[in-house]
Amino acid sequence: MTGAAKGLGARGEDLAVQALERAGLHVLLRNWRCPRGEIDIVANEGDLLVIVEVKTRRGRAAGTPEQGVTPAKQRKLCQLAQAYCDAAGWEGLVRIDVVGVELDRAGHLLRVSHWREAVDCW
Question: 23, 1, 96, 99: which is closest to 57 by C-alpha?
């Protein structure tokens, strides 16, 4: 990933954290890594563990942020959620959400959308 892409992703994650916290979620971790990949945000909402994928796009040349969560990405998110639960010893309920962050070409925020239960693994 290039420096510009990393910067765009980090900005999107910052905006996603703000939106999640405004919605009442408590962010536990960012950028949890394991051999299978990375989870952008791990949060909780009451007794529910929430795994969050953040997709940030500048412009729509590659589609909306949500369109970036392909079926293959959804399968990977399920694997990552299971890996996190195994590593953390979590045996409770889990939800996978997607936060889409859309910026214009100049980098100005257009929207942040939070899709609860965006991926169904169980």
Answer: 99
Q: Give the predicted TM-score (pTM) of the model.
A: 0.91
| List of domains in the chain | 3-119 (3.40.1350.10)
pLDDT in tens, 8-33: 788 999 999 999 999 999 999 999 99
Q: Cα–Cα distance between 103 and 70 in angstroms, integer?
A: 20
The number of beta carbons lying within 10 Å of the beta carbon of residue 69 is 20
CA gap 1, 56 in Å, rounded: 14
The enclosing H or E element of 71 equals helix 71-88
CB 84 within 8 A of CB 51: yes
